[in-house]
Design a protein that fits this description.
Layout: H1 5-22, H2 27-56, H3 73-108, H4 113-136, H5 139-154, H6 158-185, H7 187-194, H8 197-210
Length: 217
Amino acid sequence: MATSSPLAVEIFGTCFAWYANSNGYPIRAVAAYAVFGVTLSSFICAVYLLLKYVFYRKKRLFSLKNEVERKSDIGILKKLLKTAAPITASSLVMSIVGIIDLFLVMRLLSGSSDFANDQYGAYSALATPIFNLPSVMIIPIATAILPVIAGAIGKNDGKKVQDSVLYSAKLCVCIATPCALGLCFLSRPILVLLFEDSAAAKAAPMLSALSSAVIFM
């Protein structure tokens, strides 16, 4: 459950937002319901982890016969930096891309500043979150396949590494392709389900244009 918590967050938030929207609540109430769903799912995951810790903390996870070889502090620091550097760099790149995206979109949108803010709000607050939704379903695959690949690398089994990577890539494509087609042709109904008609009408063409990138992402 801990590894699938992002999916649980999306499901709870979407269900609560759908309930509020189907009952005719104003958009601010729909947003509040969505936040409440996210908060509730995070709380459930936290309770699950706490209970698991309480009931299983006495269980030995590693045998004393298989002690990890101790390394110097410098060695541990180098290994930590080697692992953390790519993750930090990727997060930095995503932040920079977001800033560039905001700068370019706001400059290229013609008309008044209110029009530009309105269009960019529809893009960033409506179209982009729905566009990112399919990637949440890929996280459990990545979490499950990582130990298999790491174990194969440790055994110098190149064929298993290649087969595992190809299998996971094919599985991701099998999930992403229908999602991309659905977001392309059903962008308006999907957005109407979650948001007001006027807001959905603005964001639907943007979501259809973004949908082709779902497979590559």
